[in-house]
Every structure is written in C-alpha cells, then in structure tokens.
C-alpha cells in the first residue's frame, strides 16, 4: 500500500449530514496524486518549469463507508492503466479511515496538458521516465497507442 496523504478530516470538509462532503474526496485525492507525482520527481515546480500539468477527463468516486469529522484518513495512489508513452493514464486512490476500513475508491483518467498551447502533450524526454516509476496496481495494464 502506497500512502501519499494522511490527515484529519476538518470541519470545513463536513457536509450537512455530518460526514465528509463529496468534493472533499476529490480534494484529498488530488493532493495525494500530486504527492505521488512528487515522490517520483514530478513535483509541482518541475512540472511548472516544463509548462506541463496533469489534466483530468473523468473522476469516478465510490463511497463505501462514512467518514466523519475528526477521523484520521490515509489515501493511497497507484497507476491502474497507462499508455506506454505515459500520455494517458488511470490512477486509483483509496481512502482509509483510521480504523483501517476502506471508505472510498476514486478513479481518475487523465493526461498531460501543455500550459501554453493548451493542448495535450507528452512529458518531455527527461521527465517521461519519472512517471513510469509511479506505483502500479497488481492488475496494471500498459496500453500501446494505436497507429494512425
């Protein structure tokens, strides 16, 4: 298990039903994902200097158990699928409560965007190999892009 975020559920993350609000899950998943990228050398400064950033096409959240105010949580991240060139990818995040119970699973599909051209791109040659070092799921799939 590759934990990339740990913290306490804050008052500002609670909804009217007194459990963690839906958008807080997306926030903690995004932070865990950035921490994962940073752990392999793709920290925000490196990406900003390259004028490239991650962009999401789809975010899917499965709620499994309630998370309440003050709960301690851990978030794991791993690549589930990626193209061989790293241009498109799927990352799974799992949110665990302090008692070890899995509370949510978040899957995102994404790619890399050139911040100046506002178009999808590849990571530069010097950075592409770093992304391939990201933790991978046991059922990881590497896709080969189709020829045009």
TrEMBL record:
MF (Gene Ontology): fatty acyl-CoA hydrolase activity
CDD domains documented for this protein: 4HBT
Domain of life assignment: Bacteria
InterPro entries in the cross-refs: 4-hydroxybenzoyl-CoA_TE, HotDog_dom_sf
Protein name per UniProt: Thioesterase domain-containing protein
Source species of the chain: Mucilaginibacter polytrichastri
């Amino acid at each position: 298990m590759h934990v990339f975020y740990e913290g306490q559920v804050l008052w500002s993350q609670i909804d009217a039903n007194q459990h963690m609000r839906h958008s807080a899950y997306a926030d903690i998943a995004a932070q865990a994902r950035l921490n994962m990228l940073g752990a392999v050398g793709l920290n925000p400064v490196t990406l900003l200097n390259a004028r490239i950033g991650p962009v999401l096409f789809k975010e899917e959240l499965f709620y499994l158990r309630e998370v309440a105010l003050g709960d301690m949580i851990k978030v794991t991240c791993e690549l589930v699928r990626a193209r061989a060139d790293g241009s498109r990818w799927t990352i799974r995040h799992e949110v665990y409560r302090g008692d070890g119970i899995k509370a949510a699973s978040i899957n995102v599909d994404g790619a890399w965007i050139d911040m100046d051209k506002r178009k999808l791109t590849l990571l530069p040659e010097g950075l592409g190999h770093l992304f391939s070092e990201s933790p991978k799921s046991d059922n990881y799939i590497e896709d080969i892009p189709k020829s045009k």
